[in-house]
Write a structure and sequence with these properties.
The protein has 201 residues and is an alpha+beta fold. The chain has two domains: 33 residues; 108 residues, Flavocytochrome C3, Chain A, domain 2, CATH 1.10.1130.10. 20% of the residues lie in helices and 11% in strands. The chain is built from three helices and six strands; from the N terminus they run H-E-H-H-E-E-E-E-E. The protein has a two-stranded antiparallel ribbon. A two-stranded antiparallel ribbon has the order 2-5. A two-stranded antiparallel ribbon has the order 3-4. Strand 3 and strand 4 form a beta hairpin. The model has no long low-confidence stretch (mean pLDDT 80).
Length: 201
């Protein structure tokens, strides 16, 4: 009985050793197969360096604000593209945002710029439940929508959604065709009116 136990114990130790050796070997193979983060793009170059000589560079529009045409949205309620130059606009911070100088609603009559939409003056959060003084997300598809007088700083980083238009050749055919339910949706946001669209009350 003791001999059988020792034999079984030795077998288990042997199998465990083989398993560990195999696992280490596979891990090393996977590590070798990993692609370095700097090599993940289409080009092997430091795109953040001004010294990098790219074979082809995107050509961004150089129109100054106020002299460019509004670009049709890519799809209904898509964040509009920036039609003018953004040279010296960045970095945009919560306390230093040059976009406000033209796009705040109270400035657009003077600047003729597209106004920041009402959604950016709205607090959008999941509806919260409360139990014993502890708040939790209900996950029932409800939103607690609260209009605010001030700009919602959750949207301060404009370039997170809005990007300047560039003239660049991409060898990928675009088969997407946008469908707008309303003609005005081509160049104006209607998201505020459609926030609860598709959500049953």
């Amino acid at each position: 009985m003791i001999r059988n136990f020792n034999s079984m114990k030795n077998t288990m130790v042997f199998l465990l050793t083989v398993f560990l050796l195999f696992s280490c070997s596979e891990t090393k193979k996977q590590e070798k197969a990993l692609i370095d983060e700097d090599k993940l793009g289409f080009i092997d170059a430091d795109v953040e360096s001004e010294e990098t000589n790219l074979k082809s560079k995107a050509e961004f529009g150089m129109d100054i604000p106020g002299q460019s045409e509004v670009i049709e949205r890519a799809f209904e309620n898509a964040p509009p593209m920036i039609p003018h130059t953004t040279i010296n606009f960045f970095p945009i911070t919560r306390t230093n945002n040059i976009c406000f100088s033209c796009h705040l609603p109270e400035r657009v009559e003077e600047t003729k710029a597209v106004p920041i939409p009402p959604t950016h003056f709205t607090d959008l959060r999941p509806d919260m439940g409360e139990k014993g003084g502890i708040y939790y997300t209900t996950f029932e598809g409800e939103m607690a929508i609260a209009e605010t007088k001030n700009f919602n700083n959750a949207y301060f980083n404009c370039s997170q959604c809005h990007v300047p238009l560039s003239n660049v050749t991409v060898n990928i055919e675009n088969l997407f065709t946008p469908e707008f339910r309303d003609v005005l949706s081509r160049d104006k946001s209607q998201l505020k009116d459609k926030l609860k669209e598709g959500i049953s009350e």
